[in-house]
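Subject: complex prediction, re-run

Hi both,

The earlier run crashed halfway through, so I resubmitted it with identical inputs.
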Amino acid sequence: EAGVAQSPRYKIIEKRQSVAFWCNPISGHATLYWYQQILGQGPKLLIQFQNNGVVDDSQLPKDRFSAERLKGVDSTLKIQPAKLEDSAVYLCASSLHGVGGSTDTQYFGPGTRLTVL
Amino acid sequence: RKEVEQDPGPFNVPEGATVAFNCTYSNSASQSFFWYRQDCRKEPKLLMSVYSSGNEDGRFTAQLNRASQYISLLIRDSKLSDSATYLCVVNPTGSGTYKYIFGTGTRLKVLA
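This time it finished cleanly. Structure:
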C-alpha cells in the first residue's frame, strides 16, 4: 500500500515570497491533516479535512495560510507571504475515518522542510 | 497549563536498561491516547495506542492513569535502535471526532 506522498521535500524561499505544498493521502482515507513542526517541538495541527470539508482550522493563520482539498483527495497548503517564523517542517497525515468512537491511526508523509530567509 | 506535557529529556540510558516516560494531559474528557516515535528528520510513526486496560507490545508497555491524567511508556531491555523522540498524543475532545494534540516529545538516547 502506498503511503502519504508530499512534495516538494525541501524548499528555501525569502521572506514575503509565496510557497505551496502538495499532499496525496493514502487511497480511501477520508481525513487529511496538515501539521507544522518547528524544530524541537511536537507537530501542531493547522487544518483538518474530512473528505473535502474543513473540520478544524482554528490554528491556521488565515491571514497568510490557506489550504484546500478539492474532490476530497489530494490537498495543497499555501503560505503567502512567508515570514521567518514559518520555517518548519510541514507534515501531511491521513486517516481512514477521522470520526467515530474507535481509534483511528494517522499515517504521516515524509514532510516538506521549509526554510524562510 | 499545556494540553499535553512531556519531559523533553534527553534520557541517556545504557543498552539493556529499562526506561519510562510520562505524559500528562489537561482535559479530563480525553478519550484516545497514543505514543508515536519520531526518528531524526523523519515523520512520526505510530508506536502504540494506549487503552484503559494498558497495552503491551514486546518490550514496550503503555499505561493510562485517568485519575492522575497521565499516560506512560515503559521500554524494557533498551536497544540502540530505540534511540528516537517519543511523542505523546491525546485526542482531547472526547466527542467522537479526532483532534490530535501532540506533546513536544521526549528524546531517548540508548548508549552502547
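The radius of gyration of chain A is 14 Å.

- K.
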